[in-house]
């Protein structure tokens, strides 16, 4: 949820500090990054019926960044952490999944903040946003019956990764 020291954009993964200041500037940067990702799709999937509906090789090689950007661009809030790593906001958290090339999406928040109560509806919004962009999304229940998503590129996009 920040820009790096070199000024490069980094999508919010939910493990970042909260963004200080007005969000309008962040929204514009996210929109520009998302439009760039969609342009990459159009340029790399020229033979596909709808090039925007399949993750590009760039996304398949960087699934955590691509999924985080898709969620942030959809307006879904990311969680955030404080200086000592404590959760300070409820929202999505994107991290590497169990299988190579997969991503895990959780709905997390501060202790006692009610993240568990809202996770079903919130994760359903994540599913909608990601499937619209061509990602394969499966819903699971983990420890303490908490839900999470496993996200990966569809087989056609995975073949492009190996090429």
In short:
It contains five helices and eight strands.
Give structural notes:
The protein has 163 residues and is an alpha+beta fold. The strands form 3 sheets. The protein has a 4-stranded antiparallel sheet. The chain starts with a strand and ends with a helix. The N terminus and C terminus are likely disordered.
Main sheet: strand order: 5-6-8-7
**Considering DSSP H and I runs of 4 or more, what fraction of the residues is helical?**
25-40%
The shape is: globular
Please count the beta strands (DSSP E, at least 2 residues each): 8
Q: Give the number of helices.
A: 5
Determine the structural class based on helices, strands and strand pairing: alpha+beta
Indicate the topology.
Blueprint: E1 2-3, E2 9-10, H1 23-44, H2 57-61, H3 63-73, E3 80-81, E4 87-89, E5 91-96, E6 103-108, H4 115-132, E7 136-141, E8 147-152, H5 155-162
Antiparallel strand pairs: 1-2, 3-4, 5-6, 6-8, 7-8
Helix pairs in contact: 1-3
Any descriptors?
5 helices, 163 residues, disordered C terminus, alpha+beta, four-stranded antiparallel beta sheet, 8 strands, globular
